[in-house]
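Preliminary data (for renewal application), magnesium ion complex.
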Amino acid sequence: MPPDSQNPTLAVESLVTHFPIRNSFGIRTGWLRALDGVTLDVAPGEVLGVVGESGCGKSTFGKTLCGIHRASGGRIVFQGEDATHAGSAQAKRLRRKLQYCYQDPSASLDPNWTIGRSLAEPLVIHTRLSAAERMARVHAALEDVGLAREHLSLYPHEISGGQQRRVGLARILMLQPSLVVLDEPTAGLDLSVQARVLRLLMDLRERHALSYIFISHDLSVVRLICRRVAVMYLGRVVEIGPAEAVFGAPSHPYTAALLSALPVVGGERISERFRLEGEPPSPGRLPGGCRFRQRCPRAGPACAQQEPELTPGGEGHAVACHFPLAS
Ligand SMILES: Nc1ncnc2c1ncn2[C@@H]1O[C@H](COP(=O)(O)OP(=O)(O)OP(=O)(O)O)[C@@H](O)[C@H]1O
Ligand SMILES: [Mg+2]
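Predicted structure:
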């Protein structure tokens, strides 16, 4: 489905999440800028990929959208209504439709509860359904994700990693969401299980008219299933656009560097010149100007002076760089 910029499911404007940095006496000494001004849209039915190195703020972005972290600034507009302030009744109602699927599937499952109890719990909290109605929903969700009813009486440690992912998905389906943030949904799974989980995700998207924000380290998976992709670096989106443009002709040197680490079957790598060196600076102590400049082979004096803004090019492709690569 093409991005529907007139009527997005989700519109995020300058979203900021800062965490306090405290010394050993518990006194705040600064702020860790985990998410530092993210603006993007998700269209109905879209699968938007979010990629970037470990620690760049992908999970913080997803968790802030879903109200797990409180936004320090900016706006989250979901289906045309403001969902920014996690405590408000409106945000609570909207956020049932906006669900986060944990990076670690066991994190959303209580080890002392059976799978059946974990699945029914969101309905107990958020709905007034009777026990029989809840059980009917649990059975339907279980069937949706391809698990047998026998799993209901098992505990999380008694099922496999792939099955835990399926239970995690069933749990978020309980509240009939419109947009799901999938945080590393295939991490830690072997290739055949990964393929089955991805097929299941695409099936569920069709059947339940879902949009996804698909967070992943795995660029080859993102390339396979996302129409559009956002590349994050230290709490900001540095490049966003159609997957074929971002992967085929990246504009940001950081995207090119990420891609040069990707194994290539046939064809050429984007550029060996952009091999990523060193570690990113701490989000608690960001450099002035462009936050990628200390690792960037193209950095010039302008990059130390001013942080580049995300600037639209053609066809929905935007880049935040003073010296973007020519396509
Ligand atoms: N609850 C928290 N309190 C304080 N700092 C946090 C918290 N959650 C995340 N951070 C910090 O915010 C930054 C971004 O973390 P985040 O988990 O969003 O990264 P990520 O891109 O999801 O990484 P990964 O790919 O490893 O999952 C990191 O520096 C992390 O240490
Ligand atoms: Mg993460």
